[in-house]
Amino acid sequence: MTKTSTRRGFMKGGLTAGAALATAGLTAPARAEGDPAITEIQDWNRYSGPGVDASPYGKPSDFEAHVVRRNVAWLTADPVSSVNFTPLHELDGIITPNGLCFERHHAGVAEVDPQKHRLMINGLVDTPLVFTMADLMRFPRENHVYFLECAANSGMEWRGAQLNGCQYTHGMVHCVMYTGVKLKHLLEEAGVKTAGKWVMPEGADASAMTRSIPLEKALDDCLVAFKMNGEALRPEQGYPLRLVVPGWEGNMWVKWLRRLEVGDEPWHAREETSKYTDLLADGKARRFTWVMDVKSVITSPSPQMPITHGKGRTVLTGLAWSGTGRIARVDVSLDGGRNWVTARLDGPSLPKALHRFYHEFDWDGSELFLQSRAIDEAGFVQPTKPELRAVRGANSIYHNNGIQTWHVATDGVVENVEIS
Questions:
Q1: pLDDT single digits (tens) 307-339
Q2: What tens digit of pLDDT does each residue of 73-113 get?
């Protein structure tokens, strides 16, 4: 018998066939007669609103005040070294608004004066260099849309369903357009010596974040970025300068970037030895597992976005991404993986960026077990959680790209569960 386990630990037997595929038309809208929302003049029809100078830097409507990043207080001992989560369930498209991009800090937000900020390149180079922000602005600029995912995204779900909402299970990911200078141009300016094989970026915050990056990756697609979605980086995203390492774990995207050292071997820093390694079932740890594997999640319906309209036409939507390139296909299941249909990808399809998918269907009011399964252009298929644990065990908190299951009850309430 197929069983499901929720974050509360209950066991539930059997799956229904789920909802029928989309065959009927939309539910008829409410009739206008007697509806005061359309028959009566509202205040916004009657009075003039604020002028153009009322909000010099625009902000969302007050009616959208609930759409914010959120923390889970018990995840960490102190918010200075913690994380908050992108409200994926409230968003659409593939671009994350700057004010909603998740935060992960190791020593809080560094407030850096760009006039005093410097970027140094040293180590195995012909000419050690120091760049001001003005210097960097004179190099050729490029614009690229990339996702950024923390390696610990979905990390609490390794041993079973825990956090009830895709904001908390998958919200350590965002996707923006970065503007900056290719790292290879700066390294070429300094001249990398023949013995140089690795690069170590260092942050200017109190944690002095450092990671080892192979020179091959540094010369490929890494970007030294100073803008996101057209405006300057937000302080919490590394203002005035951060490293962009497309497709690789977010801890390597060093914020408040101040130094790049070239060396002949990795540095084995704290963040790549005691942290950001994958502890296997036999006690051994995988190291240097940089690439973020193919992954997806249904953002609506989901625990924070239940079905409230009752039976009838329902729009399922979600996000898919892969550190190896574009998403080729996303399949969705309404019955816990027994049957799959191909979802509709919509919007830009860019390498190492988020992809938006949709599936419209008619809900008949029966319970559903929603899943999505992404396949990337390299042929990698998102695994089930049992498949992932069979290879990796359940000791890790990093690189969990297992298929997520949402249970939709007959009243439309949605809960995080796991199919076993």
A1: 999 999 999 999 999 999 999 999 999 999 999
A2: 888 888 899 999 999 999 999 999 999 999 999 999 999 99
Count CA atoms closer than 13 A to 298's CA, side-chain side: 33
Pairing status of strand 129-132 against strand 118-123: antiparallel
Per-residue CA distances from 415 to 101, 161, 164, 279, 331 (Å): 24, 9, 6, 29, 20
Q: Do 277 and 283 contact (CB within 8 A), yes or no?
A: no
Strand (E) or helix (H) holding 328? strand 327-333
| Token pair for 32 | 């206008």
- Cα dihedral: 364, 365, 366, 368 (round 10): 90
**The whole model's pTM is what?**
0.92
Give which of 146, 89, 84, 166 is closest to 355, Cα–Cα: 146
Compute CA 113 distance to the chain's CA centroid, rounded to the nearest angstrom. Answer: 28
Domains and CATH numbers, the chain: 3-20+291-419 (2.60.40.650), 103-286 (3.90.420.10)
Inter-residue contact 307 to 301 (CB < 8 Å): yes
At residue 75, the pLDDT reads 86
> What is the C-alpha to C-alpha distance for residues 51 and 411, in angstroms, rounded to an integer?
44
d(CA 225, CA 234): 12
CB 244 within 8 A of CB 184: no
> With the C-alpha atoms ordered 80, 86, 90, 93, is the resulting torsion angle positive or negative?
positive
Partnered with residue 332 across adjacent β-strands are 341, 372
Which element (helix H / strand E) includes 344? Answer: strand 344-346
Q: E-assigned strands of 155-273?
A: 173-182, 198-203, 213-214, 223-228, 231-232, 242-244, 257-263
